Amino acid sequence: DQTINRIAAGEVVERPASVVKELVENSLDADANRISVAVDSGGTEGVRVRDDGVGMDREDLQMAVEEHTTSKISDINDLESGVGTLGFRGEALHTISAVSRLTVRSKPRGGDTGRGSDAPGNDAGTELRVEGGEVTDVRPAGCPEGTVVEVEDLFYNTPARKKFLKTTATEFDHVNTVVTQYALANPEVAISLEHDDREVFATEGRGSLESTVLSVYGREVAESMTRVEHEPDDGPVASVTGLVSHPETTRSARDYLSTFVNDRYVTARVLREAVLDAYGGQLATDRYPFAVLFVDVPPNTVDVNVHPRKMEVRFDDESGVKSAVESAVESALLEQGL
Ligand code: ADP
Ligand code: MG
């Protein structure tokens, strides 16, 4: 039933940042070297993600936006373990299209569709439009190799959902956080973000965390960063690597803490506390440092599926992880004579 689908989709697609997250993830899955994200009015008016990934032909494109009843949550265990990032594996594009007007233009990488050089549409890409979950148009379209997905009028058909959106500034903040995390975690991919036609940042994809931090946070922050390297000596509790800022290079209001557990972006109270504790009394009241930390733990000691939509994790050995992170950051600061 359409209405039920829309309501379900509205629950799963929380806000523009959730759309951005799914589209960027698809671009990374498609082996993109460049990904550009552009949003209007915090993403409430429009989201566009362009990549130079493997692309799709007409058939792929039609399949990509279909409702995959077969791959839908097949039993309650799937739901509880939060498969996929939206909680519906293989359903992100369809789910987003159910609550928006979605346009995808794509062309397979390598240009040759394998159908012979005079087959129709061989050298062109395909454009597909979906509105409220219904495909309204499919046609050949000239476009570069790769894919561009445009999502307009998010929640146009779910007014109750639309009311939950916050101000443009808040929605953009969420979008910025998401794109920043993917940029930091994928330094070998050139990732850019534009808001209302203004460039917010653009990474070069040169592969180093330092150059990515420079692009994302700017020179002042990048120059204040110091390396964190910590290999556990007795027992594999956690290895911790990354960058943390000088205690005087801070911001107020919110923290700029990016933590990745086994390469997946997560939020965990225990990691945040560990970092702030490591700075101890060196931070002024209400000031937060910049930190990008990659924490690796044996996979069987962490539960990454605490919540299907959120990025929370739970560690078997919370205090062990906390002290590993705290001492890693502490010794990095100490080495700087701080
Ligand atoms: P999932 O990513 O879980 O497979 P999605 O609904 O996000 O589900 O995407 C459906 C499919 O569409 C993907 O499996 C992929 O084959 C294709 N697809 C989506 N986005 C892209 C993209 N940017 N480039 C190439 N293929 C894509
Ligand atoms: Mg996906």
Automatic annotation (TrEMBL):
Ranges for the DNA mismatch repair protein S5 domain?
A: 213-334
The residues that cross the membrane are none
Cite the residue spans of the region called Disordered: 103-141
Q: What does this protein do?
A: This protein is involved in the repair of mismatches in DNA. It is required for dam-dependent methyl-directed DNA mismatch repair. May act as a 'molecular matchmaker', a protein that promotes the formation of a stable complex between two or more DNA-binding proteins in an ATP-dependent manner without itself being part of a final effector complex.
Q: Which family does it belong to?
A: Belongs to the DNA mismatch repair MutL/HexB family.
What is the name of this protein?
DNA mismatch repair protein MutL
Organism classification: Archaea, Methanobacteriati, Methanobacteriota, Stenosarchaea group, Halobacteria
